[in-house]
Amino acid sequence: MPCLGFGTWQSLDGDEAYNAVLSALRLGYRHIDTATAYGNEKSVGRAVADFLKEGSVKRSELFITTKLWNEEHGYENTQKAIVRSLEKLGLDYVDLYLIHWPNPLKFRSWWQKANAESWKAMEEAYEAGKLKAIGLSNFCERHIDELLKTAKIKPMVNQIKVCPGQPQTELASYSRNLGMVVEGYSPLGTGGIFKNEEIRQIAEKYGHTIAQVCIRWSLQQNIVPLPKSVNPERIEENSKIFDFELSVEDMNRIANLKNLEIKPARNPDEAEF
Ligand code: A2P
User: Which residue positions are annotated as catalytic (predicted)?
Assistant: First the structure.
């Protein structure tokens, strides 16, 4: 998995998502993260197809992720959802497929069984080569433990919200100790980080931007960051994070930033969707 991903949550289907993904690919991103729920799989797929037509990169060099939406848990639903996502993306396989949330409202009284059934469908699609890797998103310790009771194939990824002030250290270690790669969405706090004075000072010290420092902070904790932007200059800026290193002290300062205008990670057992 390329260690820097490109997020597409809140990128609108149509020109916005298409142009963002095409720009990202042309600028060197090789890892694109979408989801059924983002409603933009068609545009993401179109951008991937057009980029591949340019001929500089092969499909095998790209890493495309999508996710099962909350309405579609259960064995047969998941089978159908996988086919639908592949059709929308115009791909024969995705590199990673995730259960987006562990406890959808629709399945709240039997989420454990619904996840086990979805996982079985995902294992089969993995064995059939339609999904090159399978994993989880927004799963806490209790949801992971429950899934492991019936899983034949262990989950390979947990994608969780990780941003300054919310390092999720325990859940990240727990996931990693079970062999999962940890991906972090909202590395810029969905845009909420930019008003903070302390992060501005840290960024100035390194001669980099706030966004670069935040993305670098995720990377240095072995979290795969998935920054989102629809602006080509920012997309480029966010990829230039390999030429500096944050000190341990600054890593800790960023982890402990307070009073940020960033919502806390949602409790999956209380989400209203
Ligand atoms: P835009 O898409 O208009 O560039 P996150 O990745 O944490 O979800 O944050 C995404 C938000 O941060 C979006 O509102 C995005 O806006 C904004 N953003 C992304 N990159 C930058 C950047 N380098 N500088 C300022 N804002 C950015």
Answer: 38
Q: Is residue 246 within 8 Å of 216, Cβ to Cβ?
A: yes
6-192+222-230 has which fold? TIM Barrel (3.20.20)
Quote the CA–CA distance of 197 and 202 in Å, as a whole number.
9
Say what the pLDDT of residue 4 is: 98
User: 100-121 pLDDT, tens per residue?
Assistant: 999 999 999 999 999 999 999 9
Mean predicted lDDT score pLDDT of the chain = 98
Q: Give the residue-averaged pLDDT of 42-67.
A: 98
**Closest ligand 1 atom number to CA of residue 231:** 4
- Grouping H, G, I as helix, E, B as strand and the rest as coil, residue 94 is strand
What is the whole-number distance in angstroms between the Cα of residue 228 and the centre of ligand 1?
6
Catalytic site positions: 38
- Each domain of the chain, given as residue ranges in start order, spans 6-192+222-230
Query: How many residues are there in the chain?
Result: 273
How many other C-beta atoms lie within 10 A of the C-beta of residue 7? 27
